[in-house]
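From: lab user (bench 3)
To: helpdesk
Subject: output format question, protein + adenosine-5'-triphosphate

Hello, I'm new to running complex predictions and I'm not sure whether the block I got back is the full result or only part of it. Here's what I submitted:
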Amino acid sequence: MTKAHLELTGVSMAFDTPQGPFQALDTINLKIRKGEFVSLIGHSGCGKSTVLNIVAGLLQASRGGCVLDGHEVNTPGPERAVVFQNHALMPWLTVYENVELAVRQVFRKTMSKAERRDWIIHNLELVNMAHARDKRPGEISGGMAQRVGIARALSMRPSVLLMDEPFGALDALTRAHLQDALMEIQQDLNSTVIMITHDVDEAVLLSDRIVMMTNGPAATIGEELNIELPRPRNRVTLADDDAYVHYRQAVLRFLYEKQRFPGKEKNADKSKAAAPKPAAETSTGTLQPSEESSAKVVAAPSAKTGKAVASVEHS
Ligand SMILES: Nc1ncnc2c1ncn2[C@@H]1O[C@H](COP(=O)(O)OP(=O)(O)OP(=O)(O)O)[C@@H](O)[C@H]1O
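Helpdesk reply: Thanks, we reran it on our side. This is the complete output you should expect:
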């Protein structure tokens, strides 16, 4: 690997709780090169957002730390834009003004007012939201607000883009459109991306590397998978690609065999023996946010797309 652009070394995180310290993360070591697209995947509550928040500078690790381009990360900064699950827009500002706030913060000194205006509109067009530029967050849908959150992050031309399930709340068509747009923009900007996702197909399609986390408490990195599919990637042709199918099965196997029982990762071998066959023949693996140890993977046609969808049922 070339020199790391972003490096997490020995990151552990213990939260103070009324019941005493809760060890969420234990010794996360991760080196990411400039322009790499890394997905973090793991069962609900394993600590993905905690890792992202440490890189964002919103949380301080209890042990270890994060270094970006040779500088320790201690606080948030505009070179690390974050797209949150719940889009986090300012409710009193219009769509345009929400993006403008970020653009002004980063480009106040380097762009004229007219250039900034064009740049804001360009980023809103990327996510197909320019038509709603004068609306406020309360007047648009959750999916539209999420798109504005993505436009706001992209408009900062961040060196690192941190995304916490950015497409989770979107319908299948919008999600596919934005995934394709993100792949193009990332190639163009050469931004480093860390994205949390529960969608196995999304992870394989977009990533250079998938980092799979063990179940908490004291979660750590269980496996890493380099996705060596040529770019640009096309979702339709990839669906039948042997390498693509192999990658998605490797992730499903990690999640549903090796890490099947949340909180019982040390019994991974036993769980493997008892695990149901993963949804090898399904075309989309989507993790549900709260599967229990009694969960099983099922395949069912999606109402929206007709595609088979891997989901988790509780018995
Ligand atoms: N501020 C906090 N105080 C106490 N415990 C916390 C705090 N933040 C997170 N945790 C705990 O740390 C663990 C990891 O949480 P985190 O939100 O990082 O998981 P996650 O993998 O992102 O979950 P999900 O996929 O459901 O979003 C969880 O058990 C959570 O309850």
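A quick orientation on your result: The pocket of adenosine-5'-triphosphate is lined by residues 15, 17, 22, 24, 42, 44-50, 216, 289 (CB under 6 Å). Let us know if anything else is unclear.
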